[in-house]
Amino acid sequence: MTRHTLDQLEIGNTAVVRRLNAGGAIRDRLMDMGLLPGTPVLAEFRSPLGDPVAYRIRGALIALRRSQAREVEIDLSEGACQ
Amino acid sequence: MTAQTVKLCETCPAYDASALKRLGVKVGAADYVVALAGNPNTGKSTIFNALTGLRQHVGNWPGKTVARAEGGCDYNGRQYRLIDLPGTYSLLSTSVDEEIARDFILFGKPDVTIVVVDSTRLERNLNLTLQILEITDRVVVALNLIDEAQRHGIQVDARHLSRRLGVPVIPMAARRLQGIPELLQAVEQVAKGLYATRPHRIHQFGAKLERALNGLIAQIEQEYPGLPNARWVALRLLDADASIEQAIREHRLGDLNRDVEASGTEKAVPAEVVA
What we know:
The complex is a heterodimer. By secondary structure, chain A is an alpha+beta fold. Chain A has helices at 24-32, 66-69; strands at 4-5, 14-20, 40-46, 53-57, 60-64, 72-75. Helices cover 16% and strands 37% of the residues of chain A. In chain A, strands 1-6-2-3-4-5 form a six-stranded antiparallel beta sheet. Chain B has a seven-stranded mixed beta sheet with strand order 1-4-5-2-6-7-8, sandwiched between helices. A two-stranded antiparallel sheet of chain B has the order 3-9. The longest helix of chain B has 17 residues, at 207-223.
């Protein structure tokens, strides 16, 4: 199975967070925003320039840069089929 | 506060007029210091204003551009100094606003910390709540905006939440002054130690980590005698928190305690009072 990261999630699709690869302050920030293993994430829309992307996380809309989203490993199994 | 305001307040049934006197900024040597913490836009300032009678008051925080508000109230003959902190999502973060809130909760030694949470976004708000419960057991949770939650069809079981968190949880609609008397009562009980809190904490560190922690704690305490929450500081160091590392390197960790003592009421900027 290939590893997927959040920046690869298509708009309109949902995935589940598997793990965070970031460290330090970025990791803390991602976890504070509710991105923990097992959390469903919906890629809601892309900004006009393509970066950042707005994600729906635990009821809140959060914008992540591609470089941040790349640090989040996801499981597509539950969401991609929707 | 004008005489008219006091008269109006005393006739308002939402207030336990016999017990609460709103002191505005005129708080002298307070018996208890109470910090108001919470995510942004949860109603901290609404609660602060309801308790103090202030509309806005900006206290100076030496060397910082971002402000915190201070005021006071008298409840059952005891004086409370209230500190309205900037909204924050976390104690682990790095923005200036959030650092002020974090440093006061960690090192300001408030007698009680009121964590104001938004009932309509409870899950997000519990992140900060649990972080605060890790570092202090004198906490009251103000479960605010319950009127809005009800409109969204959300019902929060405050008693169950209180049992799980181990601290009082007071349902409130602060804009309508609902829950203010109950909040005051809970704050008084926690301040006086009449309510024995049992804060929910996660303590499952391995022996190896504990050894590393204890070594660091000893060094921190040697460098900063009497510093509250040395354990938290040690955990942040092990987690490579750059802002904490820098504060230690520049010997700023103890600064806050001096600031708190120095920012007495005589330095307070005159406040606007609700007329």
